[in-house]
């Protein structure tokens, strides 16, 4: 199981590289992974699980804290895993032809889809609440990427953010509920909670509604369902997978997983009843909204909302027969809804649109596609002999057998929902394929069998599984058997149970659907026009790229038609507006924004001195109270330990005072650097060479950053009248902080005069457990490696965030020269008259030496002074020296990649090193010593934490290069050197192609059109030149 999940994520990381050579065929490579996982499950696991086996895999992280990644393959997990892998493979095959004519972006899209499949597989296999939450949030992140696409379309970005906000808020509530539930149960293992659920009441009564809230937001339950229709701006493969078979089923899966525990522990008041009510309302709201939709994709989206509500109600209410019906309908819904979404994608590409008011006669031109939609639609409407009929018949039988007021109410709601489902199913097929009077036949370009094949396979599977009812019963009965059988005995799936109320109710529901469909058509004809008049050019292809397609998708995402057309609609159609959750979402977001602005206006005055003073005053008052409460002071206060400390302390103090008195910014920066260098010298005296080296390097880099920034600021500090007025309060705060810090230093010096317990522990364990003679490096990359991983992640995010802000808001000083007559003279790179030959020659000589020295520090850090952080800083300073001496055209060819890629590579190496021991039974972040004899070199030992340190090294180098790319913009001009294309204008400033771009007469990368195009659903139009004007 772990290998299957890891394979999805690992191959997903490689797909962007493969896409450069394979193009759209990379989707076929991606499809191999879920296809292999599907075959493995089908061949090696189905028989075992249906026979009662429950395979498990556990990776223990911190046993004392009960942190572990536990996976378990039960009947429900097996069903969901088959859907995730099987439908996922077909969707990726479909995507190959759907995106065949796109301009690019294949690697990004395929990688995100496959990574999502891996995250979803981890979610359904998880047997630990916290593990489930991790994969839950991973699916949210990947869905954000997939919905937003390349980020070029405003509607796509807005819809992606909406999905992220809604599902993340629910996820955080669910996490809180998981913690409460795990503590109440005494275990975070889901199988343990289901087997021995904690009784209702107490914190369980708080935990369960929070968990249900998370499930409701993920599975688009009312009133949180607005994100799902809005997400229809995503490409059709994304909708067919995430919004039919996978992501939206996560909430249903969670409710179904905990349903047996709810029945056993009596959680009905806080779990079963709320789930049933929530699901029933969602089923009716979604059905009504689907009935008035005119965009075929939007119709299916609201239909998905309705059917998700039905699933939540059935599995949430509990009972063996309803559980059997729910599991069967989970399978049925994934098959028919993914197939219908694929059909809409084919129509969008080949018929020129998906507006049911503009399509006509497509069924005659594409009979096989119409037959596929008819077969899938029959399953959606619950007609025999499809699997949809099996599930719906079982649900009706279960509700009829259970009796009781609650079950009767749900039965009535289910009949109403089934009637609406039949009505909008007929509306879908009629709108997509029927020949409409007075409407010219739609154009049709023949579709490849490979393009329509995946939808046909899914539709045929719905029919085949309906005919193979005993096989389906064997697959899902294991989950249903977790519930008591009921007074009538165990129920089994079958196409025909004999005459009874259930078949009669099925016929009544379909007949009611026919009547509703006919009534809607009659109302439209009586008005002489559709309820919502078709907009001009509705028949235009939504498959085209550009702004028109984005506008089509934007309308779909926001819920369809708006404005005068909707106001002119009949009352039955306007009734749907009452349940328009999109407007509710927008009101909530607007209200929260206004509240945040009001609070910010009253608490954030925009003054840095005020903020710092507030922080420092709190820092004085709170610790000061501790000092005043009584602390044992030392009887003797040593002034210094070594004589050399005294002059160094004088230098530090004198520099600090001089900083206060400095009148120019550059002087203050230099004096502040002197303070840092003085502290580094004190570290040397105390025998801490690692700390001293890091201090010296950081201070040097900080001074360079100061110089880069100070070029944009006035030379002298501003002198204002109010500055003098506020001087004494600032002096008082500063003096108080100084006295407090000094007092604490003196007080703590009385605690101990030697190494503490932790220090002795590190000194004793480091050589044996980490192989490190340098205990400081052993702490950084082994004992406290998790802290280091978090720190480099924060460093990476901060650097990229600062770079984004500066590149977006900074001056255009780095813009590349134009191509007009005024730019006829382009200076040869590095041929400026103000360059210093001595500096450049020295930089060329020192540059490789510094790089070699940085590598030495990286390798030597485990046994001597050094490490990845120090080595990265030295390498970064080497690039700074080369940049200052020769400009960017000297740095670019020396850097084989772009700074963000170096940062990402470093984080990836560090994370993979942390996880590498897990498949071999080791702990996360485990470190091992590998020893071997090498010819010539002799006995060689390699500590695996070196790879982690290499990740730190790459992150630090990438951050320094990002510093040059942002803060250093314009230094080339000021020093007279040439400005390479892309320096500060958003195009890559580093990489192997920079030298070619900077040659005389060479073309800049920004001259070409963007490589990433949109797709048929309007998730981004044609490419945009990255080097042009914004």
UniProtKB/TrEMBL annotation:
<feature type="compositionally biased region" description="Low complexity">
    <location>
        <begin position="1001"/>
        <end position="1010"/>
    </location>
</feature>
<keyword id="KW-0406">Ion transport</keyword>
<keyword id="KW-0813">Transport</keyword>
<feature type="domain" description="MrpA C-terminal/MbhE">
    <location>
        <begin position="731"/>
        <end position="809"/>
    </location>
</feature>
<feature type="transmembrane region" description="Helical">
    <location>
        <begin position="610"/>
        <end position="633"/>
    </location>
</feature>
<feature type="transmembrane region" description="Helical">
    <location>
        <begin position="666"/>
        <end position="685"/>
    </location>
</feature>
<keyword id="KW-0472">Membrane</keyword>
<feature type="transmembrane region" description="Helical">
    <location>
        <begin position="451"/>
        <end position="480"/>
    </location>
</feature>
<feature type="domain" description="MrpA C-terminal/MbhD">
    <location>
        <begin position="650"/>
        <end position="715"/>
    </location>
</feature>
<feature type="transmembrane region" description="Helical">
    <location>
        <begin position="160"/>
        <end position="180"/>
    </location>
</feature>
<dbReference type="GO" id="GO:0015297">
    <property type="term" value="F:antiporter activity"/>
</dbReference>
<protein>
    <submittedName>
        <fullName>DUF4040 domain-containing protein</fullName>
    </submittedName>
</protein>
<dbReference type="Pfam" id="PF20501">
    <property type="entry name" value="MbhE"/>
</dbReference>
<feature type="transmembrane region" description="Helical">
    <location>
        <begin position="238"/>
        <end position="259"/>
    </location>
</feature>
<feature type="transmembrane region" description="Helical">
    <location>
        <begin position="200"/>
        <end position="217"/>
    </location>
</feature>
<keyword id="KW-1133">Transmembrane helix</keyword>
<dbReference type="GO" id="GO:0005886">
    <property type="term" value="C:plasma membrane"/>
</dbReference>
<feature type="transmembrane region" description="Helical">
    <location>
        <begin position="323"/>
        <end position="347"/>
    </location>
</feature>
<feature type="domain" description="Na+/H+ antiporter MnhB subunit-related protein">
    <location>
        <begin position="839"/>
        <end position="961"/>
    </location>
</feature>
<feature type="transmembrane region" description="Helical">
    <location>
        <begin position="865"/>
        <end position="885"/>
    </location>
</feature>
<feature type="domain" description="NADH:quinone oxidoreductase/Mrp antiporter transmembrane">
    <location>
        <begin position="126"/>
        <end position="404"/>
    </location>
</feature>
<dbReference type="Pfam" id="PF04039">
    <property type="entry name" value="MnhB"/>
</dbReference>
<feature type="transmembrane region" description="Helical">
    <location>
        <begin position="271"/>
        <end position="291"/>
    </location>
</feature>
<feature type="transmembrane region" description="Helical">
    <location>
        <begin position="792"/>
        <end position="815"/>
    </location>
</feature>
<keyword id="KW-0812">Transmembrane</keyword>
<feature type="transmembrane region" description="Helical">
    <location>
        <begin position="73"/>
        <end position="94"/>
    </location>
</feature>
<feature type="transmembrane region" description="Helical">
    <location>
        <begin position="298"/>
        <end position="317"/>
    </location>
</feature>
<feature type="transmembrane region" description="Helical">
    <location>
        <begin position="410"/>
        <end position="430"/>
    </location>
</feature>
<feature type="region of interest" description="Disordered">
    <location>
        <begin position="976"/>
        <end position="1030"/>
    </location>
</feature>
<dbReference type="Pfam" id="PF00662">
    <property type="entry name" value="Proton_antipo_N"/>
</dbReference>
<keyword id="KW-0050">Antiport</keyword>
<feature type="transmembrane region" description="Helical">
    <location>
        <begin position="132"/>
        <end position="153"/>
    </location>
</feature>
<feature type="domain" description="NADH-Ubiquinone oxidoreductase (complex I) chain 5 N-terminal">
    <location>
        <begin position="63"/>
        <end position="104"/>
    </location>
</feature>
<feature type="transmembrane region" description="Helical">
    <location>
        <begin position="691"/>
        <end position="710"/>
    </location>
</feature>
<feature type="transmembrane region" description="Helical">
    <location>
        <begin position="836"/>
        <end position="859"/>
    </location>
</feature>
<dbReference type="InterPro" id="IPR001516">
    <property type="entry name" value="Proton_antipo_N"/>
</dbReference>
<keyword id="KW-1003">Cell membrane</keyword>
<feature type="region of interest" description="Disordered">
    <location>
        <begin position="531"/>
        <end position="566"/>
    </location>
</feature>
<dbReference type="InterPro" id="IPR046806">
    <property type="entry name" value="MrpA_C/MbhE"/>
</dbReference>
<feature type="transmembrane region" description="Helical">
    <location>
        <begin position="906"/>
        <end position="930"/>
    </location>
</feature>
<dbReference type="InterPro" id="IPR007182">
    <property type="entry name" value="MnhB"/>
</dbReference>
<dbReference type="InterPro" id="IPR025383">
    <property type="entry name" value="MrpA_C/MbhD"/>
</dbReference>
């Amino acid at each position: 199981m772990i290998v299957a999940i890891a394979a999805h994520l690992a191959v997903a990381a490689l797909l962007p590289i493969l896409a450069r050579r394979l193009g759209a065929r990379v989707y076929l490579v991606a499809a191999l992974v879920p296809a292999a996982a599907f075959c493995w499950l089908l061949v090696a696991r189905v028989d075992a699980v249906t026979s009662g086996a429950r395979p498990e895999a556990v990776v223990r992280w911190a046993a004392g804290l009960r942190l572990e990644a536990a996976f378990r393959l039960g009947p429900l997990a097996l069903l969901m895993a088959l859907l995730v892998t099987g439908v996922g493979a077909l969707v990726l095959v479909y995507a190959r032809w759907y995106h065949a004519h796109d301009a690019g972006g294949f690697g990004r899209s395929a990688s995100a889809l496959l990574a999502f499949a891996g995250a979803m597989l981890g979610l359904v296999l998880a047997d630990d609440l916290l593990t489930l939450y991790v994969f839950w949030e991973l699916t949210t992140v990947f869905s954000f990427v997939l919905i937003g696409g390349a980020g070029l379309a405003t509607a796509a970005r807005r819809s992606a953010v909406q999905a992220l906000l809604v599902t993340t808020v629910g996820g955080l509530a669910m996490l809180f509920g998981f913690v409460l539930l795990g503590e109440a149960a005494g275990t975070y293992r889901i199988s343990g909670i289901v087997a021995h659920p904690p009784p209702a009441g107490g914190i369980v009564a708080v935990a369960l509604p929070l968990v249900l809230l998370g499930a409701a937001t993920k599975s688009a339950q009312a009133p949180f369902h607005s994100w799902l229709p809005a997400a229809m701006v995503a490409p059709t493969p994304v909708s067919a997978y995430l919004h039919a078979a996978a992501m939206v089923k996560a909430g249903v899966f969670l409710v179904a997983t905990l349903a047996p525990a709810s029945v056993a522990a009596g959680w009905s008041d806080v779990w079963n009843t709320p789930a049933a009510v929530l699901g029933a309302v969602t089923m009716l709201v979604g059905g009504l909204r689907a009935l008035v939709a005119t965009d075929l994709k939007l119709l299916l989206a609201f239909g998905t909302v309705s059917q998700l509500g039905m699933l939540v109600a059935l599995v949430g209410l509990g009972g063996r027969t309803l559980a059997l019906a729910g599991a069967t309908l989970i399978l049925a819904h994934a098959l028919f809804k993914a197939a219908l979404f694929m059909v809409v994608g084919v129509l969008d590409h080949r018929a020129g649109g998906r507006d049911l008011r503009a399509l006509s006669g497509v069924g005659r031109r594409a009979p096989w596609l119409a037959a596929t939609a008819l077969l899938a639609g029959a399953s959606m409407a619950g007609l025999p002999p499809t699997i949809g009929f099996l599930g719906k018949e079982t649900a009706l039988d279960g509700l009829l057998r259970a009796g009781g007021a609650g079950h009767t109410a749900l039965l009535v709601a289910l009949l109403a929902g089934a009637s609406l489902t039949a009505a909008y199913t007929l509306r879908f097929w009629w709108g997509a394929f029927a020949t409409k009077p007075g409407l010219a036949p739609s154009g049709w370009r023949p579709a490849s069998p490979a393009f329509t094949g995946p939808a046909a396979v899914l539709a045929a599977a719905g029919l085949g599984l309906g005919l193979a009812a005993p096989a389906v019963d064997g697959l899902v009965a294991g989950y249903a058997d977790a519930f008591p059988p009921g007074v009538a005995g165990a129920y089994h799936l079958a196409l025909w149970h004999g005459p009874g109320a259930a078949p009669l109710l099925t016929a009544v529901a379909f007949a009611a659907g026919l009547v509703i469909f006919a009534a809607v058509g009659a109302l439209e004809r009586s008005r002489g026009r559709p309820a919502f008049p078709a907009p001009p050019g509705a028949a235009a292809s939504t498959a085209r790229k550009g702004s028109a397609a984005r506008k089509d998708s934007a309308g779909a995402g926001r819920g369809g038609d708006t404005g005068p057309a909707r106001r002119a609609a009949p009352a039955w159609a306007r009734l749907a507006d009452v349940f328009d959750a999109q407007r509710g979402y927008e009101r909530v977001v607007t209200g929260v924004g206004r509240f945040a602005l009001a609070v910010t206006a009253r608490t954030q005055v925009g003054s840095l001195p005020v903020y710092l003073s507030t922080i420092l005053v709190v820092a004085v008052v709170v610790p000061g109270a501790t000092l005043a409460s009584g602390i044992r002071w030392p009887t003797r206060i040593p002034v210094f330990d070594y004589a050399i400390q005294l002059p160094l302390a004088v230098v530090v103090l004198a520099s600090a005072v001089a900083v206060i008195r400095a009148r120019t910014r550059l002087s203050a920066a230099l004096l502040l650097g002197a303070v840092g260098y003085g502290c580094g010298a004190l570290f040397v005296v105390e025998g801490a060479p690692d700390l001293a080296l890091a201090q010296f390097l950081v201070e040097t880099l900080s001074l360079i950053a100061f110089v880069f920034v100070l070029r944009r600021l006035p030379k002298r500090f501003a002198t204002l009248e109010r500055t003098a007025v506020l001087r004494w309060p600032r002096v008082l705060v500063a003096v108080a902080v100084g006295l407090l810090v000094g007092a604490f230093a003196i007080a703590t010096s009385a605690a101990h005069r030697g190494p503490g317990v932790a220090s002795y522990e590190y000194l004793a364990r480091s050589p044996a457990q980490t192989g490190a003679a340098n205990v400081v490096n052993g702490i950084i990359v082994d004992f406290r490696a998790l802290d280091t991983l978090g720190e480099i992640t924060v460093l990476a995010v901060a650097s990229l965030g600062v770079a984004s802000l500066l590149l977006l808001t900074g001056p255009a000083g780095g813009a590349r020269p134009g191509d007009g007559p005024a730019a006829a003279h382009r200076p040869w790179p590095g041929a400026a008259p103000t360059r210093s030959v001595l500096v450049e020659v020295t930089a060329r000589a020192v540059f490789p030496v510094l790089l070699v020295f940085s590598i030495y520090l990286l390798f030597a850090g485990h046994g001597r002074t050094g490490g990845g952080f120090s080595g990265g800083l030295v390498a970064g300073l080497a690039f700074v020296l080369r940049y200052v001496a020769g400009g960017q055209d000297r740095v670019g060819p020396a850097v084989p990649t772009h700074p963000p890629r170096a940062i990402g590579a470093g984080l990836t190496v560090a994370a993979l090193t942390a996880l590498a021991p897990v498949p071999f039974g080791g702990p996360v972040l485990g470190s091992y010593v590998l020893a071997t004899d090498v010819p010539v070199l002799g006995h060689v030992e390699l500590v695996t934490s070196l790879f982690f340190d290499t990740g730190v090294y790459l992150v630090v180098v990438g951050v320094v290069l990002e510093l040059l790319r942002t803060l250093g913009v314009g230094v080339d001009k000021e020093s007279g050197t040439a400005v390479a294309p892309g320096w500060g204008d958003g195009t890559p400033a580093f990489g192997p192609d920079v030298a070619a771009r900077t040659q005389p007469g060479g073309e800049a990368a920004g001259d070409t059109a963007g490589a990433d195009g949109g797709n048929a659903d309007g998730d981004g139009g044609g490419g945009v030149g990255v080097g042009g004007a914004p």
